[in-house]
Amino acid sequence: MPTLATDIDALARFGRALADPIRCRLLLALREAPAYPSDLAEGLGISRTRLSNHLACLRDCGLVVAVPDGRRTRYELADARLGHALDDLRSAVLAVETGRACVDAEEKGCC
Q: What is the pTM of this model?
């Protein structure tokens, strides 16, 4: 059985990943299908350098993996359950309250 510290660490890593809109978009894109960096950068409309930084963060959080594919590297979710978790989390947040944004979260000290 996981310890409380392990549970907190896992949720904190997931929260860090979701704290940035680009990382959210990356996770949602990879939820649909594995992809190559060039395709992800083009689809998100960001530079390869910026994409690389976000993919590194997601790898460090243990949420995505880099899979060698010949001379290229493909990215995918580290576990298919992460895709289900994203769907469940989005559905739960939308069910609880819609139309809200945490625009002044830093001022309130919640982030």
A: 0.81
